[in-house]
Each structure stands twice: as structure tokens, then as C-alpha cells.
Design goal:
The complex is a heterodimer of chains A (268) and B (464). Chain A has 16 helices and no strands. With 268 residues, chain A is mostly helical. In chain A, helix 4 packs across helix 7 and helix 4 crosses helix 16. Chain B is built from 19 helices and nine strands. Classes of the chains: A mainly alpha (268), B alpha+beta (464). Chain A: Its main location: nucleus.
Chain lengths: 268, 464
């Protein structure tokens, strides 16, 4: 659906206020630092990305799954549902919404098992993917409830294509900006800003990287709140700064250990 | 799922936090706690079951439609339906009010406003009246108002790049008494149809009768993608059916369990009405996947005397009328030449008197019966009931019952309603012409309902 963003549930319900977001995360931020929290989300975004690639999903579907994941934890603590279960559930739900053919239950579970074993052993060691179809199906209902049935997510990719077209088809610029949009999924910008602003932010960074000074007038002519664009740029640049001094393979096990976890029913 | 929860303790991780689970359970409202609907089933089909419901707390006394989706969990069609309806908002598109997820039996319930009527029942009522040589009083602009609102709703869907993919009279609802009286609501978008393989899901359905009557010729010739033009063709079919009370491309039904889109009998029926398409009228027909089969199976000479104008003329729609001219633009064989919903709404038909009204009944009493509750007996007879949901089949007995059951309605105030005479009476004056007929209507509006039949024309269409 390429409807009107301004009338969408995305715009009306899911562009969150930064202060509210910080407040709702307070439980988790009592246990984790903001940077640790971001590193954990970075990790699960990778799981969603690789799961999606293994299942041959389009980037649009992967991005939607990642946004579902972020929306759930924007309203809930990490301890409510194990993110290792929620991540594939988001992929499963997004693939159905984006009409890309149902992934069979068994294929989903098998892919989870292979991906965790082959690509994320640095995080989970010899531990196998612990969930089965029934867990995913149960989790899916909770996810849908917490999303308030808002399943159509607008992504920056389409506005990005339109902007690059407007600039005058520049393949290198598009490639850079596209990757930056992908990276932006590991920040909070998809919860805080409309997708067209994220697209402009990504273009801005791409222009700086490529030294495209000549596009300054194009940005100046955009009728857009440049403060917001700067906030988006800062979030993404911060992510890149964090990556420079971060070795996920070494640190993630400790972080996962520290992460708030679901508690079972009290024993009687 | 409680068992799984316990089992998980043996694994490294617990999937869900107990307090979170209990908290959400307590906050979750159950559909059966909020609504009364037991014994109030009004519809069933491949999509599931629909109940007429009222709020238990009496905070309003409106009727609601509760749809329990077939099967358990979130099928792709359920996902698509929820995802799209959550975003769509237009007076002529059904409004999803709320979703209930029943975790215990994994059922999905959708809450909508209740629509008392639909075009399947409305057309059936007119056909029954015709068969019984009875008349139905409806405002003369009703078909025009219905078509305009259908186009308005489809234009909204199309401008949001949502294709309906399954337009047919049963999916066009009309609101009964209440604040939205006489308003069209488009329902049951073909959410199950895959964008890239439009015909595959048909094969996945139960072997109920799947109607091909509203399918565009390019689909029958193997077109791989649904398009806006395919919805427009279906609207043309519905328009013709409203004008004549007969499905224009009526064709013998089969239990279809094949993924082959090519359907010889349905194409034959279309050519019998429309004539065989000339190369110049549909240049790309040669590119259709089933074009070779078409050439092998059909002879142009068999359809030499067929044309839409002749067909409609036989049904008392004059080829020089604005209604016919619009119909012809909707039912163009070449999908590239078929008009868009936006163009259709600009057609002179809609600026000609009588103008379309927001209430398709134009304030007149509604002659159609309310939906009947389906009994458990009906439920046993699954194949029959499914066919009834999906099909427009002739059911003489049912039709007769309906007419009789509602005969009292005819005695109501008919100040602005027209009578609908039987076909035989109408045939007497086939040469009467439309103009004269409209004058006749004006006189009838004076309140006289009985008599004068012999000067009226045969069916539904002429009234508008």
C-alpha cells in the first residue's frame, strides 16, 4: 500500500516523542547503559537482517520486521518477551503483511536454527535456537496486540528513490544513501521521524561522504525542518562512531547476559 | 500454551515473562464479554462467519458485524485484511473498528459497522419480484447512486494502490436504517490473492463454486497480474446487472479446483454478449498467454451478430442512453482502453437527472428484507451454504419466500417509490422509450402505486 503517510497509523500513532521513549525504557536503562541498550538492538537487527536475507526477503520486508521489533520494545521491557523469539516472529509477520508469500513454519524454524548456529555462534556458543513453531505463533498474537494492529510501515526507500531521481539519477549517491538507510534501522530514527526525513538525512550523510558540495542548493531548497534532519544525521553518525570502537563478537555475550530476561511463573 | 511455557524452563531461556503475560491477559477484552451475538449468524463463506452483534453494556444500541475469520491464527489473508483495513478510511469502504484475538482458541475476530443489505440480496429480490410478476418500489436514481458510490470507494482504494480483486454483488454492502442509511460499503477485498500469482489462491480454496462472471477477459486469457482495469470490468458487470437484474456474463458454474485461468465457457459467454474482439479494438490480445488457445477454440464468425448494444437493447437499455454509454466504457475488452474510476465518475450519466444521492434509497422506505439469521441446520449443509454466500444462483424457492415474507413492506408509504412490474408486463411496451417512462415516474410519485403496470417497462433497469 502506497497510501497517504499523513493519514496512516504510522504517522498518527507511531512517530514517538523522544522524551516518552526514554521514559518508557527506564526499566531497561536501570540495568543497561544507553550504549549497551543500543548494542543489543544492533545485534538483534543483525539477526533480523540475516534471517531475512536467508529467507530471500526484500529489504523492504526486513526493514518492516525491524521496525515491528523496535516498536514492541518501545512500549515494553526487553524482559517481557525474549528478543531471540520476537525477532523471527517479526520477520514472519512482516513477510505476510508485505504479501511475499507465506514462509512455511518449518522453513522458518530451520532457517533460525541454521542462522543462529552458523552466523551467531559468537553470541550463543553451542546453544541451539530454542523455539518452535508454537512459540512463534503465540508470540505473534502478542506482537500484533502490542503493535495495535498497525502493520503497514512506511520506509525511507521509496522517498529516497524519488529524491535521487529529482537530483538527477546518481547511482553512487543512491547506493550510499540506501546503505545508510539500512544502517539507520539500528538507531531509533524509525521510531522518531517520518521516513521522508530519514531519507533526506541519509542523502545528506552520503553527500558528505562523497564530497558532493554541489548539492547544497538542492538541500537548501527543500521545504523541510533542517533541525530534524540534523538530529537524524547525528543519530546515524553516532552509530558509526560507536561501531569504530566496538567489537560485537567480543562483547555481545556479556551484554546478552546482562540483558533483562523473562521470569517464569512463580514456583509453588 | 501454558504447557510450552513450563517446558521452556529446561531451555536456556524463558520465552515470555510471567508478569507480562498475566498483565496483558487481564487487560485483554474478550469479544464474548463485550458483545452479544449468539445465534445471530448472518453470513458464512470461505472467509469465515459473520454475526450481527450488540454491545452488552448498552453504551450504544447500534448493530455491529463481527467476523470470525476462517481457520486459526493469522493467515496471510487475515494479515493483509487487518493491515490494510487499519489504514483505509473512506465513507464507501467498510470500516474496521476493532480486532479481537482470542488466544485460547487462536481465533481472530474483526468488528465492523453492520450493513443490513448487499447487492446480491438486492438483485435477488428484484429477480424474484420479476419472476413473480410483482413490483418493487425504489427511487429512480438508485442504480446511479449505487454505481457512483461504488466508483467513489474504488477510486479511493485505487489511489492508495489497493486493488479489490474480487468485486461482485455480494461484496457491495448497503447500509440500512441509521445515520449512514443507504450508503454503499465495499467489503471483502480479495486479500488472499497474491499480487504475482493472482489465480493460484483460487486453487487453494475449498472446491466451492468460484464465480467467473465478474472476471475480466484478460484474466481468463491468463493475465498474470491484477490491475485496476480488472476491478473496473467487474464494476461494469455489476452495473449491467443492476440495470437488468440479470448477471450479464452468466455462465454455467462448475466446481473448479484448477489453477488454470483459461475458462472456455466464460469467454464464450462474454463473446456472445460483446462480440468477438477485433484486432484493432484490442491489439495486445495477441500477447495474452492463452491467445493460442483462444485462436484454436473460437471462431469469430460464431459471434457475428453479437454486440453489447444489442444485448442491452434486449434488456430495454437504449444504446443512445447515458447509462449505456458509460457501461460501454467500463466494459471495454482491451484493459488499456477501459476507463478509470475517476473518469467514470466524471461521466455525463452522473450529471443527468436524476442526480445520485448519498442515501441510495433517497429517503424512501427500504423495500428489501433484513438479513435472516442462519440456523444450525444450515451450518451442517456446508457446501450449499458456501455456494449461497459466493454465488448468484437462482433459488426460486428462497426468492419466493423472501417476496412473500416482505409483501407487507409494499403497503408502506410509497410516496417516492416506483413499482417494479414483472417482465411480461414490461415487454408489452418495449417501444415506449425512456423519456416517456420518466414522465410516468413523475406521475407515480404522486402516490399511486398500483395499476399502470402495462405502461411500464420490464425490469429494474428502466426505473432509473
Amino acid at each position: 500500500m502506497a497510501g497517504n503517510f499523513w493519514q496512516s497509523s504510522h504517522h498518527q500513532q507511531w512517530i514517538l516523542d523522544k522524551q516518552d521513549l526514554i521514559r518508557d525504557r527506564q526499566h531497561d536503562l536501570n540495568i543497561l547503559t544507553e550504549e549497551e541498550y543500543q548494542k543489543i538492538f544492533n545485534f538483534f537487527a543483525s539477526i533480523i537482517q540475516i534471517l531475512g536475507e536467508q529467507l530471500k526477503l526484500r529489504q523492504q520486508v526486513i526493514a518492516t520486521a525491524t521496525v515491528y521489533f523496535k516498536r514492541f520494545y518501545a512500549r515494553n521491557s526487553l524482559k517481557c518477551i525474549d528478543p531471540l523469539l520476537l525477532a523471527p516472529t517479526c520477520v514472519f509477520l512482516a513477510s505476510k503483511v508485505e504479501e511475499f508469500g507465506v514462509i512455511s513454519n518449518s522453513r522458518l524454524i530451520t532457517t533460525c536454527q541454521t542462522v543462529i548456529k552458523n552466523k551467531f555462534s559468537y553470541a550463543y556458543g553451542q546453544q541451539e535456537f530454542p523455539y518452535r513453531t508454537n512459540h512463534i505463533l503465540e508470540c505473534e498474537f502478542y506482537l500484533l496486540e502490542n503493535l495495535d494492529c498497525c502493520l503497514i510501515v512506511y520506509q525511507p526507500y521509496r522517498p529516497l528513490l524519488l529524491f535521487v531521481q529529482d537530483i538527477g539519477q546518481d547511482e553512487q549517491l543512491l547506493t550510499y544513501a540506501w546503505r545508510i538507510v539500512n544502517d539507520s534501522l539500528r538507531t531509533d530514527v524509525s521510531l522518531l521521524y517520518p521516513p521522508y526525513q530519514i531519507a533526506i538525512g541519509a542523502l545528506h550523510i552520503a553527500c558528505v561522504m562523497l564530497g558532493k558540495e554541489n548539492l547544497k542548493p538542492w538541500f537548501a531548497e527543500l521545504n523541510v525542518d533542517m533541525d530534524k534532519i540534523q538530529e537524524i544525521v547525528r543519530s546515524i553518525i553516532n552509530l558509526y562512531e560507536m561501531w569504530k570502537s566496538y567489537d560485537e563478537k567480543k562483547e555481545i555475550q556479556v551484554l546478552l547476559g546482562k540483558m533483562p530476561k523473562p521470569k517464569p511463573a512463580p514456583q509453588r | 500454551m501454558g504447557d510450552n511455557f513450563q517446558n521452556n524452563k529446561t531451555m536456556a531461556s524463558v520465552m515470555m515473562d510471567y508478569d507480562f503475560k498475566v498483565k496483558t491477559q487481564n487487560e485483554r477484552s474478550k469479544v464474548e464479554d463485550l458483545f452479544d451475538f449468539e445465534g445471530c449468524k448472518v453470513g458464512r463463506g470461505t472467509y469465515g462467519h459473520v454475526y450481527k452483534a450488540r454491545r452488552k453494556d448498552g453504551s450504544d444500541t447500534k448493530d455491529y458485524a463481527l467476523k470470525q475469520i476462517e481457520g486459526t491464527g493469522l493467515s496471510m489473508s487475515a494479515c493483509r485484511e487487518i493491515a490494510l483495513l487499519r489504514e483505509l478510511k473512506h465513507p464507501n469502504v467498510i470500516n474496521l473498528i476493532r480486532v479481537f484475538l482470542s488466544h485460547t482458541d487462536r481465533k481472530v475476530w474483526l468488528l465492523f459497522d453492520y450493513a443490513e443489505h448487499d447487492l446480491w440480496h438486492i438483485i435477488k429480490f428484484h429477480r424474484a419480484a420479476k419472476a413473480n410478476k410483482k413490483s418493487v418500489m425504489v427511487p429512480k436514481g438508485m442504480v446511479k447512486s449505487l454505481l457512483y458510490q461504488i466508483l467513489d470507494g474504488i477510486h479511493y482504494l485505487h489511489s492508495n494502490w489497493v486493488l479489490h480483486r474480487d468485486l461482485k454483488p455480494a461484496n457491495i454492502l448497503v447500509m440500512g436504517e441509521g445515520p449512514e442509511r443507504g450508503r454503499v460499503k465495499i467489503a471483502d477485498m480479495g486479500f488472499a490473492r497474491l499480487f504475482n500469482a493472482p489465480l493460484k489462491p483460487l486453487a487453494d480454496l475449498d472446491p466451492v463454486v468460484v464465480t467467473f462472471w465478474y472476471r475480466a477477459p484478460e484474466l481468463l486469457l491468463g493475465a498474470r497480474h491484477y490491475t485496476k482495469a480488472i476491478d473496473i470490468w467487474a464494476i461494469g458487470c455489476i452495473f449491467a446487472e443492476l440495470l437488468t437484474s440479470e448477471p450479464i456474463f452468466h455462465c454455467r458454474q462448475e466446481d473448479i479446483k484448477t489453477s488454470n485461468p483459461y475458462h472456455h465457457d466464460q469467454l464464450d459467454r462474454i463473446f456472445n454478449v460483446m462480440g468477438f474482439p477485433l484486432e484493432k479494438d484490442w491489439e495486445d490480445i495477441r500477447k495474452m498467454p492463452e491467445h493460442a488457445t483462444l485462436v484454436k477454440d473460437f471462431k469469430r464468425s460464431n459471434y457475428q451478430n453479437c454486440s453489447l448494444s444489442k444485448y442491452m437493447d434486449r434488456h430495454k437499455i437504449k444504446p443512445d442512453s447515458k447509462a449505456f454509454s458509460l457501461l460501454q466504457r467500463l466494459l471495454l475488452m482491451d484493459p488499456n482502453r477501459r476507463i478509470t474510476s475517476e473518469q467514470a465518475m466524471q461521466d455525463p450519466y452522473f450529471t443527468e437527472d436524476p442526480l445520485p444521492t448519498q442515501d441510495v434509497f433517497a429517503g424512501c422506505p427500504i423495500p428489501y428484507p433484513k438479513r435472516e439469521f442462519l440456523t444450525d441446520d444450515d451450518q451442517e449443509d456446508k457446501s450449499d451454504s458456501k455456494a449461497r454466500q459466493n454465488q448468484q444462483q437462482q433459488q426460486p424457492n428462497t426468492q419466493q419466500n423472501q417476496v412473500q415474507a416482505n409483501s407487507h413492506d409494499h403497503g408502506a408509504n410509497n410516496a417516492k417509490r416506483m413499482r417494479m412490474p414483472g417482465p411480461n408486463q414490461g415487454n408489452n411496451t418495449s417501444g415506449g422509450g425512456q423519456q416517456e417512462f420518466h414522465q410516468q415516474q413523475q406521475m407515480m410519485f404522486g402516490g399511486q402505486q398500483q395499476g399502470g403496470n402495462s405502461q411500464q417497462q420490464g425490469n429494474f433497469q428502466q426505473r432509473f
